[in-house]
Design brief:
The protein is α/β, with parallel strands linked by helices and 334 residues long. The chain has a single domain, classed as Glycoside hydrolase, family 3, N-terminal domain (TIM Barrel), CATH 3.20.20.300. Helices cover 45% and strands 11% of the residues. The strands form three sheets. The chain has a six-stranded parallel beta sheet. Strands 3-4 form a two-stranded antiparallel sheet. A two-stranded antiparallel sheet has the order 8-9. The longest helix is centred in the last third of the chain and has 18 residues. It is globular.
């Protein structure tokens, strides 16, 4: 599929992960599928309950611990250590940090994944984390725009609704995203959440008002805009995956994330995009703009040909080091 369609990248889940050397070889094999532009090898490695890579990788506490500690230096050291271990196995894009604010009483889908309930605190820590992760060679992704923290439902299963007025979003929820953009974050992930103050019909992922007008134009994000998984219940309850793919592109997203294992579903989505261009529903100019954006962002982090992966003692020496475990324990004590 990758050779035929020229995929932009892959995402690894627990089902793809057996051991560090196997992950490193898999990442290297993925890059052999690239022609002119390398592929992302991505993963959700936030810390706490959302971490696909477990021991012998360092197991980090949930990022709420960083918020309780409030130390920008600690945030940068954690991101640097995390990037070192991801890079050692060929992961080039980490879907972190979570930029949603914690809200008491909200659905626990975010909960302790959030850095803080204070927008300024979350913004400072996020900027430090993103800058350090990316200096160490791993692209970051701030999620879930424009803020998933105050939902009362889990978008993995149904469509949440957040009723805050626009001025509240700009004063609170958007603050960490502004900081991420100021830190030149490589990508931002959209939320499958309905925000009637901006669009009373479409969740953020499918909303031009939020993706193009607010995130791209008002806030000035120049990196990639990535959808959350288009196979989640918040989308599939009312849209086919292929129709959602087209609508997400119409909204201004330029990277479509499909996380299921049904390859025919992925092919159907790509074919729907091709038909949308052929019929004029999507313009070639929009496709070319997205392609150029991918080339520009990838040029910051990826190279061809890919380097041979580490193995044996060289790989083991990079994972779960004494220094990294001590850092994780320092963070946990917060």
């Amino acid at each position: 599929m990758a050779r035929e369609w020229g995929l932009g990248g892959v995402i690894l889940f627990s089902r793809n992960i057996e051991a560090p050397e196997q992950v490193a070889e898999l990442a290297y094999d993925v890059q052999q599928l690239a022609s002119d532009v390398p592929l992302w090898v991505s993963v959700d490695q936030e810390g706490g309950r959302v971490a696909r890579l477990r021991a012998p990788f360092t197991e980090w506490p949930a990022m709420a611990a960083l918020g309780r500690h409030g130390d920008l230096g600690l945030s940068a050291r954690v991101a640097t250590a995390l990037a070192s271990e991801l890079a050692a196995v060929g992961v080039t894009l980490d879907f972190a940090p979570v930029l949603d604010l914690h809200h008491a009483g909200a659905d626990p889908v975010v909960g302790d994944r959030a850095l803080s309930d204070d927008p300024d605190q979350a913004a400072r820590l996020a900027m430090s984390f993103i800058e350090a992760l990316q200096v160490a060679g791993v692209a970051a992704c701030g999620k879930h725009f424009p803020g998933h923290g105050d939902t009362r439902a889990d978008s993995h299963h149904e469509l949440p609704v957040v009723e805050h007025p626009p001025d509240r979003f700009r004063a609170r929820d958007l603050v960490p995203f502004k900081a991420a953009i100021a830190a030149n974050v490589a990508s931002v992930m959209s939320a499958h959440v309905l925000y009637p103050a901006f669009d009373d019909e479409r969740p953020a992922t499918l909303s031009r008002a939020l993706i193009s007008e607010v995130l791209r134009h008002e806030m000035g994000h120049r990196g990639l805009i990535i959808t959350d998984d288009l196979e989640m219940g918040a989308i599939t309850a009312s849209h086919s995956v292929s129709e959602a793919a087209v609508q997400a592109f119409e909204a201004g997203c330029d990277t479509l994330l499909l996380c299921g294992s049904a390859i025919e579903q992925h092919v159907t989505a790509i074919e729907a995009l091709i038909r949308a261009v052929e019929t004029g529903r999507l313009s070639m100019a929009a496709i070319e703009t997205a392609w150029t954006r991918h080339e520009d962002v990838k040029a910051r982090f990826l190279t061809l040909p890919p380097r041979r992966p580490l193995s044996g003692a060289a790989l083991s020496a990079r994972l779960g080091t004494d220094a990294h475990r001590a850092l994780a324990e320092e963070l946990a004590r917060a």
